[in-house]
Design goal:
Blueprint (H helix, E strand, L loop, with lengths): L2 H13 L12 H20 L1 H5 L8 H26 L5 H9 L16 H22 L5 H29 L3 H20 L11 H6 L7 H19 L9 E3 L4 E3 L5 H11 L3 H14 L1 H20 L1
Antiparallel strand pairs: 1-2
Bound molecules: benzoyl coenzyme A.
């Protein structure tokens, strides 16, 4: 088949809402766009383990510790599904990890903020995982099959994570005055960074045009941010807390809240490596990768032995 025939088949798949699969022909820029997004998503999952992992030893009860441990392990699993999905596009995991470790690839801006108190663990689960679900629900219908299927499972687990965070916030917000103040302080610090997770405003989002054309993204950064605000404000009210935004106001004509934009200068700084924890996160990832080399070697040796046994049988 000639190149333009292949392109016609690809376009008609998208038009019919069918999935593109690894062996299908795809435009080179579509492949590159997916590798960029899926790998950055995978990096976000494993870097996201760091701020939460920081609290496993200090969780206030055995139950809280077990639940947090399970959540952090889930994030590691999400990273694995996503790296595997990216590998189906013909890129190696070593190359992807190297891009993370050298600071060449991005990961979500949110994980460059510190988790200072136990309430931050509540705010991360509630707000950060809440924002992640808002974004990932649309990605269950993204046009690339392996990415869409990974998202289905990830979304189920993220729902549990969001409940875990909201439960912590509920205990604190309905607890003593000090606990409530701690919950409010966490909300104050995490609100705007969470809003940044959806990416820059649509007018400054260079990747959106292709992402929407190729049905990688189904909704824009601003549409998802608006949905997140609309969904989260009633939860803040239920907790008896206050959104740290004086301009927040219900707008009947758009059936949604008007809100203040996050500080986009701060966002640019954070994604260029100058956020509060960027250096710390990269150091921790590099250290873990180096110290985990023996585990990867052992897993490969085990796989080789199993293959030999299988082939000899
Ligand atoms: N942080 O043209 P745009 C989780 C970059 S993990 C950093 O709008 P796009 C969790 C963007 O990459 C959740 N960088 O881009 C884990 C681009 O730069 P490059 C992670 C950002 O791709 C553990 C430039 O800015 N979720 O939930 O159309 C524990 C211009 O942006 C950010 C995903 O990764 C950001 N926030 O839209 C708990 C979802 N925003 O690459 C929780 C998958 C933008 O051209 N990704 N940039 O150098 C997406 O849906 C999209 O990639 C985004 C950005 C909406 C994030």
């Amino acid at each position: 088949m000639e190149e333009n025939k292949f392109e016609e088949v690809f376009e008609s798949k998208l038009a019919k809402n069918e999935m593109v699969e690894p062996k299908d022909w795809m435009p080179e820029n579509y492949r590159k766009h997916l590798i960029r997004q899926i790998s950055q998503h995978a990096h976000s999952e494993i870097v996201g383990m760091l701020p939460e992992g920081n609290w496993i030893t200090r969780a206030p009860s055995l139950r809280a510790k077990v639940v947090l441990l399970a959540k952090v392990q889930d994030e590691g699993g999400h990273g694995l599904y996503l790296y595997t999905a990216a590998e189906t596009l013909g890129v190696s995991r070593d190359e992807l990890l190297n891009n993370l470790h050298t600071g060449k690839a991005k990961y979500s801006s949110i994980f460059n903020y510190p988790t200072l108190t136990w309430a931050d663990i509540g705010a991360v689960g509630w707000l950060v995982d809440g924002a992640a679900i808002m974004n990932q629900v649309m990605l269950q219908r993204t046009s690339y099959g392996p990415y869409a299927r990974a998202m289905v499972r990830i979304c189920k687990e993220e729902s549990f994570h969001q409940r875990q965070g909201f439960e912590i916030m509920t205990h604190l917000a309905f607890g003593t005055a000090d606990q409530k103040a701690m919950a409010q302080d966490a909300l104050n610090r995490w609100w705007y960074p969470t809003m940044m997770m959806f990416g820059p405003p649509d007018s400054e989002s260079p990747n959106s045009e292709n992402a929407l054309k190729w049905r990688i993204k189904r909704e824009t950064n601003d549409q998802l941010r608006q949905k997140f605000v609309n969904q989260t404000v009633p939860q803040v009210e239920y907790l008896g807390l206050t959104v740290p935004d004086k301009n927040l106001k219900w707008n009947e004509s758009k059936k949604g809240y008007d809100y203040s934009e996050p500080d986009w200068v701060e966002f640019k700084n954070v994604i260029s490596g100058n956020g509060p924890c960027n250096k710390q996160r990269l150091l921790a990832r590099n250290k873990a990768h180096k110290e985990g080399a023996w585990v990867r070697e052992a897993a490969q040796a085990f796989a080789r032995k199993r293959k030999e046994v299988y082939e000899a049988a």
